[in-house]
Amino acid sequence: QVYASSSEKETSKKELLKVDELSLYSSPARETKYVENPQTQLEEGVAQLRHAMEPYTAWCQDLYAKAMPKLEKAVEHGREGCEFLQNPPAGFYPRLGVIGFAGILGLFLARGSKIKKLVYPAGFMSIGASMYYPEQAVAIAKVAGAQLYDWSLQGYIAVESLWKDNPKKRRYGKKGRWTESVTVI
């Protein structure tokens, strides 16, 4: 901000005052007006960039606001896990060793397909965990069974709708091209 005094009232010799005529308690009134500096090319470029980036910064702020509670919750779970491992219940590490060994045994026995390499270790580890934690295994099995039933039902409905909604059949034409014909029911 720059303040400039007006050039209209320039001091001249006629307006000079004697020391006795000066006020002891107030200063003479000045007329000032605000003069704005013109924007430089850099300032204009920054303003254009900020205007162009405004939607992206709003998106980032929204994403941050949504992700921060989840991140804080994950950090809290990590702290609780560290505290649990520092003061484990009696017999926790031997149980963990048996469950881990069951997973390694599953990897060793799962020779061949990739599906076996996924199913065997997970199955052996779940069997080992269910031996040590039967109540939790029953609760997980109930939830997983209900979820598996829902997924299979959704898959069955999707396949059935695809099967019924496709009245067109493909035939092999005389010239060696695939042709589509519509069957009338």
Question: What can you see in these coordinates?
Answer:
Component of the MICOS complex, a large protein complex of the mitochondrial inner membrane that plays crucial roles in the maintenance of crista junctions, inner membrane architecture, and formation of contact sites to the outer membrane. The chain crosses the membrane at residues 92-110. InterPro entries: MIC26/MIC27 (IPR019166), MIC26/MIC27_animal (IPR033182). By secondary structure, this protein is mostly helical. It has a domain at 40-87. It is 62% helix and 10% strand. It contains four helices and four strands, in the order ββααααββ. The chain has a two-stranded antiparallel sheet with strand order 1-2. A two-stranded antiparallel ribbon has the order 3-4. A hairpin with a 5-residue loop joins strand 3 and strand 4 (178-182). Helix 2 (92-109) runs antiparallel to helix 3 (114-132). The longest helix has 46 residues, at 41-86. The radius of gyration is 41 Å and the shape is elongated. It starts with a strand and ends with a strand. 2% of the residues are buried.
Summarize the structure.
Keywords: Membrane, Mitochondrion, Mitochondrion inner membrane, Transmembrane, Transmembrane helix. The protein is mainly α and 185 residues long. The protein has helices spanning 41-86, 92-109, 114-132, 134-165; strands at residues 2-5, 32-35, 168-172, 178-182.
